Model the fold of this input.
Amino acid sequence: MAFYENTIVTKQDLADKELKNIKSKYEQLINDTSGKVVKIEEWGLLNLATKIRNYKKAFYIHYKFEGSANTLKEVEKKIKLDDSIIRHLTVKYKKLDTENEFFKEKGDL
Amino acid sequence: MKRKNKKFQKKGSNSLNRLSLFQKNDGRFSKNCPLSIKNAPIIDYKNIPLLKKYISDNGKIISSKITSVSFSKQKKLTKEIKKAKTLGLI
Done:
């Protein structure tokens, strides 16, 4: 059971309701496939350094979870299908540091 | 016998001394690594203010010769910078 950090970059023109169910969809997916969500961070709307698919701003959701290989496979498969997500990055860690928050709700860069 | 005395000559003329002859040694070579002090900032792709210090204005990674960062820290730094670039944070 390794520790993973998964950040999802979604389109900017999503309704608030859609963002909510995206967030809960993946959280529920992780919990289903033998994983355990440690923490969810919402970095909010940040402007992108470079244009990704001619979007200038994007909404970031950050998951810190513990899971096995097949949870990762499930999450990756779902992310690839979902077209409202333009970028994602999962990083494997030995142990997670959940205390320091780099993106406060202010979302300062 | 004379040969032996010659061997004990003081070896002081390494590259630094020769360099300081021509230009003021601005301490850039002797400065120790800013990232390996006791409570150094965590090198992480989320720690944007720190990463911003080590990239140039058009997003290139500054070489460790200039920022005098140690080799292992520079390797970690480049990995984290590239992760932040894929996410569009930098």
DSSP finds five helices and no strands in chain B.
